[in-house]
Request: fold
Amino acid sequence: MQTFHIKTWGCQMNYADTEKIRYILCSGGYREVSFRENPDLVILNTCSVRQRAEDKVLGLSHAMRSLKNNNPRARVVLTGCMAQRLVRNGCNEHEDAKYTRSLARRLPWVDLVIPIGDRTGWEVMINESIVPESAGDAQVLYDNCPQERSDRIRANVPISKGCNNFCTYCIVPFTRGREVSRSYTAIFNEVTDLVLRQYRLITLLGQNVNSWRGGKDGCSLSFPDLLRAVDQIDGLYWLSFLTSHPKDFSPELVDVLADGRHISPYVNLPVQSGSDTVLARMNRKYTTRDYRKLAENLRKRVPGVRLCTDIIVGFPGETEMEFNETVSFIKKMQFGMIYLAKYSPRPGTAAFSLPDSIPEEEIERRRRIVEDVQSSIMKKRNSARVGSAVQVLMTGHGRGLTFDLTEITIEGGEDEGKGGHSGEVGSFINVVVTEGSAGGLRGMVAV
Ligand code: 5AD
Ligand code: SF4
Reply:
């Protein structure tokens, strides 16, 4: 029996793709092993959002060469966003073609490139007849391919792929292509099946879930319709969704959240910058005022909403004043969490050729300032929860999530089996919060 090992970087969408690839390979008779076991097939499911993610793959040269020494049958397959860079010249810019050539030169140990979503490519590879080159209309894509899930209680369900927004810093519209929605029926049936199989946290995934479009019985449906319909499925589960674009987060969606039965009050709403001039240069199509009004509405209508965001510091030309606007915005908004990134120029994107890049030391200085500000906000927010009673979904030994998806450690729960006491993975338990820090919450099982 042939063996495989798969490494994944990047967003939840990549992890969902990995589960599909795992399904295809396991159905084709492959067995998953650790890298140390010198597998016959190593799959690298890669990310191109930041240079650092690509560097991690480029840095595997030594490991891949020694794998091939240890197992002469071993082959390396590249998929994910870096693979898209190699199989099609999605970005028209001159820099991108140059970059693609340099990537190809730096990956001589890659034996095969399989584009994202190309189910036929994997099947052909398993049968070893021809080397697939690119995804095309005639090929079966893995949009509705089952996922061999690695988690027993948490499941991500892709509802769309690609993105049409072209934020000037972002490579995703080039690597994952234009947005395509998955059908209502496929999504609804998959969630129903997951609920039956006792998955407890189901996350609808898309680069921008808010622009999902579908149809049922001749009627056209929007994302709020989909969310409302999925939320009607009976069962013991929480429902969440990732990621939202502020420009498409409609008042109707706020209504659905406010009336939800299973919908978690966790809202991931990337703002990227707190400066209107930077937002315009990023092509985000909203202002800080629009964002603030949306946040106020959410906080008014959805009790306990936990608003989290993404911030990029050091976008080209970001002045000290623009950066300070971001810092004040963060202080004003009191986010539950910030996914903070230093701007990374991506060849082929519009921002790549913008003048006035910010020196690395300055970007790092700005990153640290935002980190410190946010850390004290989180400390304050989390310590304000001490003494409150929360429902917790157990995700591991002594670990769980509150309904707004904040991580919580259950005191004594880590010593499970040695007299410690908490719930089994997948159970919901009642907990009293005993401690809140920047890193999360601690609590005790309520009696
Ligand atoms: N540099 C830094 N961060 C980026 N992101 C996307 N592209 C870049 C880039 N070129 C961040 C954004 C996005 C998240 C997924 O990654 O904040 O919301
Ligand atoms: Fe990238 Fe913007 Fe699309 Fe998000 S919305 S994937 S940041 S282009």
Residues 49-50, 169-170, 270, 272, 310, 312, 341, 343-344, 346 surround 5'-deoxyadenosine (ligand 1) (CB under 6 Å). DSSP finds 14 helices and 20 strands in the chain. The first strand starts at residue 3 and ends at 8.
